[in-house]
Amino acid sequence: MGGPITVRVPATTANLGPGFDSIAMALSLWMTVGATPADRWSVVYEDEAMQGLPTDDTNLIVQTIGRVVRRAGKKDIPCTLRVTSDIPLGKGLGSSAAAIAAGIEIADRLHELQLKRKEKMWFGASIEGHADNVTAAIAGGVTVSFYDGSSLEVLAFDAPDIGGVVLVPPVMMKTGDSRGLLPAQLDHKKATEGSAASSLMAAALATGDWPLVGRMMDRDIFHEPYRKDRFPDFDKIREASHKHGAYGMTLSGAGPSLFLAVPAGREDEIARTLETAFPYYKAIAVRPVVEGSSGN
Ligand code: HSE
After folding, report:
1. Among 133, 177, 217, 252, which residue has the most ligand 1 atoms within 8 Å of its CB, making it the best to mutate?
2. What are the extents of the domains in the chain?
3. 5-158 maps to CATH 3.30.230.10
4. Atom number, ligand 1, closest to the C-alpha of residue 15
5. CA nearest 117: which of 71, 154, 159?
6. Short-list 27, 15, 164, 43, CA closest to 87
7. Which of 99, 190, 198, 269 could be bridged to 60 by S-S, CB 3.0 to 4.6 A?
8. Using one digit for the tens of pLDDT, what is the confidence trace for 42-66?
9. Cβ 133 under 6 angstroms from ligand 1
10. What are the b/e assignments for 152-184, b being 16+ CB within 10 Å?
């Protein structure tokens, strides 16, 4: 007990279209957090982009550690946390889920709690309020989750052999603001279609049928229709994505980034092509990763 401890957590893209609040995939961008016991809690962000985040005990990583530790009935061990990250902040790539997963991992190691993966995921879902990003951040690969605010069911499977392109706009968007665009109710017939798209996409993900995953990624009715107008050239980018061979394109989580699933090995080329065509967005080529949160 007592550190120092270093944990690493991947970025995640949630929903993949119709898998709203349920499906997510871990991507090859990482947040690393070092924890060293100290007299009081403090957080040092090494990256320019993360300046302005709370650095005291109101910080999300610190709050998460506190919540897990209190629930385990242990005494607080204050630490200095040093954070580096190449996960764009506030861009729909799971930066807050990564912070939460990092906090859970640090609490587990610092206090030798030996939490099971499912318990870590439950803590994560209960803090974030939905299970998609945080389950993939913890498990890696692809996760399909059911979370109703109390019970959690998760199926995790390996990272698929595909490429990914993330189109990141210069603006940030808070998940809460993006969720505020959603309707309170959905027509029953439409909801049935949405559920079918989500189920079929999950089955296609499990069997590795990416052309079918891609077709279903384009068929969300739960959130995309209410959000997409906020993102310049959304329809044109979808059209261009298909023209250049992407399996599918959708919002990454609640936005504002867009995510394209593309054939393995074509992610760099498609990223460059789309960045040239749509210079408002910065294109980042990624790969799905099998590793979830881990540490030493
Ligand atoms: N499923 C969530 C949403 C992901 O779309 O609002 C954001 O964290």
Report:
1. 133
2. 5-158, 162-286
3. yes
4. 1
5. 154
6. 27
7. 99
8. 999 998 888 989 999 999 999 999 9
9. yes
10. bebebeebbebbbbbbbbeeebebeebeebeee
Which amino acid appears at position 87 of this protein? I
Residue 286 corresponds to which tokens in the numbers above?
A: 């990624």
Regarding the domain delimited by 162-286, which CATH topology (the fold level of the hierarchy) does it fall under?
Alpha-Beta Plaits (3.30.70)
In short, whether 18's Cβ falls inside 6 Å of ligand 1 is: no
Mean pLDDT in each 10-residue stretch from start to end of the chain (296 residues)?
84 98 98 97 93 94 97 95 96 97 97 97 96 98 97 96 98 91 96 97 97 97 95 96 97 96 98 98 98 95
Is residue 65 a contact partner of residue 40, using CB atoms and an 8 Å limit? no
Q: What is the pLDDT of residue 1?
A: 54
CA–CA distance, 135 with 185 (Å, rounded to integer): 26
Atom of ligand 1 at shortest distance to CA of 94?
8
How far apart are the CA of 79 and the centre of ligand 1, in A?
30
C-alpha distances in Å from residue 291, one per residue of 38, 64, 157: 29, 21, 11
**252 CA to centre of ligand 1 in angstroms:** 8
pTM comes to: 0.96
Q: Does the C-beta of 179 come closer than 6 Å to ligand 1?
A: yes
Q: What pLDDT is attached to residue 130?
A: 95
CA of 50 to the centre of ligand 1 (A): 21
Residue nearest ligand 1's atom 6 by CA: 254
